[in-house]
Design a protein that fits this description.
Blueprint: H1 19-25, H2 39-46, E1 56-60, E2 65-68, H3 69-79, H4 86-97, H5 103-108, E3 114-120, H6 123-127, H7 141-156, E4 179-181, H8 192-195, E5 204-210, E6 214-217, H9 224-235, E7 248-254, H10 256-264, H11 269-279, E8 281-283, E9 317-319, E10 327-331, E11 339-347, E12 356-359
Parallel strand pairs: 3-4, 7-10
Antiparallel strand pairs: 1-2, 3-5, 5-12, 6-11, 7-11, 8-9
Helix pairs in contact: 2-3, 3-4, 3-7, 4-7, 9-10, 9-11
């Protein structure tokens, strides 16, 4: 196969330069050493797709740099991707460039949000995406480097460098890489991409603009209702314990053992979602401004269309989650251990980030 014509600028390091120090000094890394994107390596990455290197996948905010196939290939090399990952990486880049995902908001907010990549379908096994034990952790090249490519594209194409444009108050370790495969084989429910309208035999990536995950440890509950209550009241503390309703979508990552408990009682994914929406509620007296030293909660920001015409009384109950569809659920993790996790999202609505899914082609 003929080599692709590359249009990116060539940067030549002196023979005496340490390539790792060279790239770090140019400000094109995430703080960790990167693989030098030589022409040979970029060509190998591009050979994994039949797409034109100059095809524009979109632009990435906040600087709206052009995400061409070639530019994404360069960042995939730097992140350490194997060429077999590249079609998946391209789908991720398309999702990252989609206006509804709103990478601009994600990368300039003080909230410390970052893209969580969820991989579904046959490609998980084809390229070795980890869906089981240590699903959100280290040790698996596909998860680690696909997630890292997202961060490098944000820095080098989107222009979001910390202290200059990215002003996250805290940040968190998942900003380096945040990529998980859904454990479809251990799930009693339909996987995320099927729920979103794709066929089971299609492979997809879904981006969720989220914060750091919080693990939920429950080894005691043996019924679906007991477990849903402990998961739900842990989820009630995201953002803060008075934020009812929370301003964002929420990603609940259910571990296989917990999923089995729900399945044994015949609960569907929608049953769990409905239960959380209806049961995780607090009375207005605990949420209104000034109580217990707080400044109040999200009750003042409920969209007008969702408000009652009557002013709330102290006993009026407010849900933690703004809508049924704001609770997203996947299954991931190992088959031993009863640890689920919750990932709070960036603000929802027109000014926030919307879950974005693309097919791997």
């Amino acid at each position: 196969m003929a080599e692709a014509v590359l249009l990116s600028n060539r940067i030549h390091a002196a023979a005496e330069d340490d390539p790792f120090e060279f790239f770090y000094e140019r400000g094109v890394t995430d703080g960790l050493p990167v693989v030098p994107p030589t022409e040979e390596r970029v060509q190998r990455m591009l050979a994994a797709t039949n797409r034109d290197p100059q095809e524009l996948l979109g632009t990435i905010g906040p600087n709206y740099g052009r995400a061409t196939v070639e530019k994404v290939a360069i960042n995939a090399v730097m992140a350490g991707c194997h060429p077999s990952y590249f079609p998946t990486v391209l789908a991720v880049a398309e999702a990252l460039s989609d206006e509804k995902f709103n990478a601009h908001a994600l990368n300039v907010t003080t909230f410390s949000a970052t893209p969580l990549t969820i991989i579904n379908g046959p490609v998980r096994h084809e390229i070795g995406v980890n869906c089981g034990h240590n699903a959100l952790g280290h040790g698996f090249r596909a998860n680690a480097t696909i997630g890292r490519t997202v961060r490098l594209c944000i820095i080098n194409i989107g222009g979001a460098k910390p202290h200059f444009i990215t002003k996250a108050t805290m940040g968190h370790p998942a900003q380096y890489t945040f990529c998980v495969g859904e454990n479809e084989e251990e799930s009693p429910w339909e996987p995320l991409h099927v729920e979103l309208g794709f066929r089971p035999d299609q492979s997809t990536v879904t981006l969720f603009g989220g914060h750091s995950p919080l693990q939920i440890n429950d080894h005691a509950s043996r019924t679906a209702e007991q477990l849903a209550l402990s998961i739900g009241w842990t989820m009630a503390n995201i953002w803060n314990h008075k934020n009812f309703p929370v301003f964002s979508d929420t990603m609940l990552i259910v571990c296989p053992e917990h999923a089995k408990t729900f399945a044994q009682d015949g609960w569907s994914k929608n049953d769990l979602r409905q239960f959380l929406f209806e049961k995780i509620r607090k009375p207005f007296r605990e949420l209104k401004p000034g109580v217990n030293g707080g400044e109040g909660a999200g009750v003042s920001m409920i969209p007008l269309a969702n408000r009652s015409n009557e002013p709330p009384t102290d006993e009026t109950l407010f849900p933690k989650f703004p809508a049924l569809e704001s609770i997203m659920i996947i299954v991931a993790g190992g088959t031993a251990g009863r640890f689920s996790a919750v990932v709070p999202g960036l603000a929802r609505g027109d000014y926030g980030s919307k879950v974005t899914t693309k097919e791997v082609r």
